[in-house]
Every structure is written in structure tokens, then in C-alpha cells.
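Weekly structure sync, notes
Attendees: PL (lead), two postdocs, one rotation student
Agenda item 3: pending single-chain targets
PL asked that the sequence for the first pending target be pasted directly into the notes so everyone works from the same version. It is reproduced below exactly as submitted, 335 residues in total.
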Amino acid sequence: MKNNWVAASPVTINWAVTNRCNFKCRHCYSRADTSRELDLETVYSLINKISGAKVFSVNFGGGEPLLRNDIFEIALFASKLGLVVSMNSNGFLIDRDVAQRLKQAGFQKVGISIDSPKQEVHDEFRGVEGSHRKAIAALMHLREAGIETSISSVICRININDIEGLIGQAVSSGAGNINFHNFKCSGLGFTNKDDLDLSPEEWKKFYISAAGHKNRVKNLHISLEDPIIAALGHKNGGSLVKGSVCGKLSLNIKSNGDITPCGFIPVVIGNLCTDGLMDIWNTSPVLEKMRNKAPKGKCLKCSHYADCLGGCTARALALTGDINNPDPHCWENEP
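Predicted structure, written out during the meeting:
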């Protein structure tokens, strides 16, 4: 039975244009990826394919996308085709001149990763001394250049008691958004999950607290992307779909052109260098299964399943091997 609405074509493409990075983050999902990096002309050809499929936006990531010296040319090419262009960065390489170049290249929004309001905690988590200071400075440079900014924070053991501090930091830095990303168990996130991940009950307490801040804090949009917030009565009104958006609104492209449902699901469903984007979108058996999940285990008797559809598909796959199993972060119906 069809249990979700799916866009006619991908609304957003998340593209890891490189796996190279100047950081050593403890939760990184891409550091072990040795896929080759596409040359500029090939990237241009793939952007043409994306534009032809009527995709709305492209978000460049990695790795650290600014380690590609041609990221400005890539973004300009995409923006001239009418694509809304954004980027996720650790901010270390963004000074005033780089921020101006990003603006000229057509970047409308740049997200900067900051995982703690405490400099020493962030620096240790990201593996580079001075990374917090550079990230805060990057937000200032981007704002001065006229680029919309957001902060991305991976919620885990290092910052669970500093949510108010993260929000205060976002407000003081002038960021328009803060995205509280649920911890994924991919790559080093899986290796270090016992040290970094939270228990289901801790996730429940976090989302109750974060939802309260979301209702109270003005002049800052707080994004809670996790489908399991439906268990708290939240319908995730910012999304057009229920459950995970991967494969319904978005797709992920790896540095070599391989396509996966999302960056945290290492299942290749095609390669944009050789395959048609819409063929993959419309005919992939993997996407079909993700769009029509069947409840298992405790989800069978859960009254929230129609809204959360089992929670995060990537976590269920990483920790149980089955996309239909309940999200391991879910606190509902725990014994």
C-alpha cells in the first residue's frame, strides 16, 4: 500500500563533490570513502542533467567542498541554469574574500557546522584547533557578503546539555537558522556510536526541550528534522512528506557520480554519469521500498506510525540491517 507522497522529481540534490577534508570529525560518514573526484567538465554535464530533470536546488557538501578550487565555477554554472545553490562547510577556509566569491558564484545559503558553544569542545570533536573561532568568523563574513547563513549541529553526547548555549550562539552570530541534526550511525558515526549516541529516553527528553525552545525563541528558525518527533505529536509541518524525506524529496550524489538515497545510506542505486536521473527516480527498486515501508516490531502497534513511518530509514538500516525495522532512537513502546 502506498503510504506517502513523492515529488514528481527530486526537489533537492545533496552532492558530495569531494571526500577530501581538512577536519577529523569523530562522526564523519565520508572519510573512508575513496571514490574518485569528477573533473569539472563532467560535473558540468551532470548539472545539465539535474537542471533538465527540473530539480529545484543543489546543496554542495563533502568532505569540505571548498577544498575543490573549482567550487566557485561549479556553483556559478548551476546558478546560471536557475538552480538554487547552497553549501555545507566547516567554515575554516571562509574569510572575507572567499565569502564575497561565494556570493558572486551564486550561493544563496551556506550552512556552517558548529557542535558546541564551547570552543574547546567543538575543536576536540572536529579534530582541529581553532575550528570554532574560524566557524564563528565565517558566519560574520558570509552575513556581510549578503549570504543567508545557518548553523548545523549534530546532537550527541558532547552537546546534549548545551542546547540553550547553541541557540544563544546562533542568535548572537546572526544566523537565520539552526539545524539540530539527529545523530546518524554511518561511517565513524557507527564506530563511535557507543561514546556519542544517546539512548531513546535521552532523545525523547532532547526533543521535548528543543520543541519548547522552537516555540519560544524569536528571530531564529530551529529545525528538527527527525521523523520520530511525530511521537510527541509534532507533524513536522516543514516537510511535504511523512517519515524520512530521502528518496521522496531528495537524492544524494557521491564524488564519483554514484547516486544513493541519502548520504547516510550507502546503497548505490545508479550513477549520474551513465544513468538518467529521472529513470532512477521513477524505477529504482530501492527507492520503491523506501517509499512504501512496512511496519515491523513495535511499529505494528504504534499509533504514530502513519506520521513517522518508522523514523529514520538510515539509522534502521545501519543498526538493524532492515529499513522496515523501528528506528533505534525511538522511545515509544519500549519494554
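Discussion points:
- Residues 79 and 106 are 6 Å apart (CA to CA).
- The radius of gyration is 19 Å.
Action: rotation student to compare against the earlier draft before next sync.
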